Amino acid sequence: VERTLSIIKPDAVARNQIGAICARLEKAGLRIVAAKMLHLDQQQAEGFYAVHRDRPFFRDLVKFMTSGPVLVQVLEGESAIARNREIMGATDPKKASPGTIRADFATNVEENAVHGSDAPETAKKEIAYFFRDDELC
Ligand code: ATP
Ligand code: MG
């Protein structure tokens, strides 16, 4: 089994869609093995998205990710990283396949409801960014 980091972003939390999104994750066979609700500060958001530091949307992205609480979760399952990306859908909801989380819950390419790690190394790094070992089930 594999683990991945999921974030339900401020837009979806503000719209009261935590339950609906978690139901999608669980229906896809992903198990929630750790969860915490956090309101990221600027430093936490900048650190998390450091790989995008030089992208033109970086400042807006940090502003968005600190605009309200998020739900950070560790998901476990068979091919959890790819499975989560699959049910999330494309970054831009206009390009996301019907029935995906982003097709149904995202507003636009920035306010796109969820995050999911994109590879085993990033999953490991992102999980450690938010959770200590003794916080994982
Ligand atoms: P995530 O990393 O959040 O799971 P992703 O891997 O699909 O999403 P990335 O390319 O890693 O997309 O971009 C990280 C986040 O930055 C996106 O989820 C989105 O919130 C924001 N973003 C990406 N591209 C754009 C853009 N062109 N304009 C504005 N915001 C963007
Ligand atoms: Mg990404």
TrEMBL record:
One of the protein's GO biological processes: CTP biosynthetic process
Location within or outside the cell: Cytoplasm
Cofactors: Mg(2+)
This protein's GO CC annotations: cytoplasm
InterPro entries cross-referenced by the UniProt entry: NDK-like_dom, NDK-like_dom_sf, Nucleoside_diP_kinase, Nucleoside_diP_kinase_AS
Pfam families xrefs: NDK
EC number(s) per entry: 2.7.4.6
Major localization class: cytoplasm
Domain Nucleoside diphosphate kinase-like: 1-137
Role this protein plays: Major role in the synthesis of nucleoside triphosphates other than ATP. The ATP gamma phosphate is transferred to the NDP beta phosphate via a ping-pong mechanism, using a phosphorylated active-site intermediate.
Name of this chain's protein: Nucleoside diphosphate kinase
Annotated organism of origin: Sulfurifustis variabilis
